[in-house]
């Protein structure tokens, strides 16, 4: 009996030392998810789901009166030349363009380096009622943009 036990123990030990039939496949699949390019793709996906919505570029305040819509935005450090306003029948798009240019010159080494960046932040506001486009007015003073959009009330039809 003790010999049978020794033999069984040797068989068990030899089986544990032999690789499992799917161990190589499992290691390959595991490596696939831990090395580029799949790893980089998975990290990008994780970043997207951790931060799915980019921060809002600038805040808008919206007010509706009986006669007009008033939109105001605080844009510190922005010149009026950087602002574009698109007006449509029931929507306004406000865009702010920021350009930055960096130039480095090293005459001794004969190097010239120029870097330009452009960032366009945009917000869109839709209205429940149409607006009168040609009477819209915008002002920008001290970083405060105010847009006044008269509401188109339509025409009242008299019944004869």
From TrEMBL:
Pfam families the UniProt entry points to: HSP20
SUPFAM superfamilies tied to this protein: HSP20-like chaperones
InterPro entries: A-crystallin/Hsp20_dom (IPR002068), HSP20-like_chaperone (IPR008978), Small_HSP (IPR031107)
Segments for region (Disordered): 1-21
The SHSP domain, residue ranges: 47-160
UniProt xrefs under PROSITE patterns: SHSP
Origin superkingdom: Bacteria
Protein family (similarity comment): Belongs to the small heat shock protein (HSP20) family.
Xref: PANTHER family: HEAT-SHOCK PROTEIN 20 FAMILY MEMBER
Protein name: Hsp20/alpha crystallin family protein
Species name: Neobacillus notoginsengisoli
């Amino acid at each position: 009996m003790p010999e049978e036990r020794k033999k069984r123990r040797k068989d068990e030990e030899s089986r544990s030392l032999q690789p499992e039939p799917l161990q190589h496949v499992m290691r390959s699949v595991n490596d696939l998810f831990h090395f580029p390019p799949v790893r980089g793709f998975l990290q990008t996906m994780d970043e997207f789901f951790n931060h799915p919505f980019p921060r809002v570029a600038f805040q808008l305040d919206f007010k509706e009166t009986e006669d007009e819509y008033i939109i105001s935005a605080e844009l510190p450090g922005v010149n009026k030349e950087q602002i574009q306003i698109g007006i449509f029948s029931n929507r306004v798009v406000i865009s702010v363009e920021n350009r930055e240019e960096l130039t480095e010159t090293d005459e001794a080494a004969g190097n010239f380096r120029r870097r330009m960046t452009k960032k366009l932040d945009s917000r869109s506001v839709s209205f429940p009622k149409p607006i009168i486009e040609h009477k819209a007015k915008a002002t920008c003073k001290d970083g405060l943009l105010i847009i006044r959009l008269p509401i188109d009330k339509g025409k009242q039809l008299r019944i004869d």
